[in-house]
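Pasting as-is:
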Amino acid sequence: MSDLSIPHPPSSTAVRVWDLPVRLFHWLLVATILAAFLSSEEDSALARWHVPAGWVAAVLIAFRLVWGLVGGEHARFVNFLKPGQIAHHLGGLFRGKPERSVGHNALGGLAIVALLGTTGAIIYSGATMQGEGGEGLHETLANILLGLITLHVAAVIAMSLLTRDNLIGAFITGRKRAGLHPGVPDARPPATLAVPLAVIAIGGTTYGATVIDPLAFTPGAHAGAAERSGGEAA
C-alpha cells in the first residue's frame, strides 16, 4: 500500500517537503474559514455562504484526517505528533537558537491538531445548534479558533525569521532550500492508495453532509428557511 521505503535523494538546490494535496487542503481551509468568519453576521453580504462554508470545511477536515494517515511523509500525523520533543523545542526557543525542522516542529504539530479539532467542534456546534446556548457555544469556539489562528500565524512568521527558513513559501511551492537542510532527502510520496482513499473520504463526507442537511451546500437556503419559519411563527 505504501512506498515510504523508497529513498528520494534531494535535488541540488531544493528539497521537496509538502505534497500538492496537503498544500491545496491548507489554502482551501484558510479560504473557507475566512469566508465563514466574513459571513457570520446576518447583515453581511456573504451571509448566504456561511453554512456552505462550514460544510466545505467539514469535507476538507475529513480529507486531512485520511491524508494524515496515508499522505506524503511530512503530512502524516506520525511524523509530526511528537510530544516528547516539545521541551527540547522550547529550550531552543528560549535560548534564541531554535532548530530548523523539515516538516512541522513539535509545537507546530500540536497547533495543527488544535486547529483541526477546534474547527471540527465549530462545525458540530453549528450543525446541532439549538437556542441561544448553542449559538453562544458556536461563537465562543469561533473566537477560540481566531485566537489559535493568530498564534499560529505569529509563530510561523517568527520561526521563519529566526531560522531564515521561509515556512509560508514552502507551503506554496512545497519545497525548502536544500542548503538549510543538508543531507535531507526529498519527502517520501503518499501511499499507493492515498488518492482513492481521499476521494472516498471526500465523497462520503459530502454525501453525509447532505443526509444531515439536504441544503448543506446551497447558499442562502438556511436564511430563507429561517425567515419562513419566523414568518409562520409570527
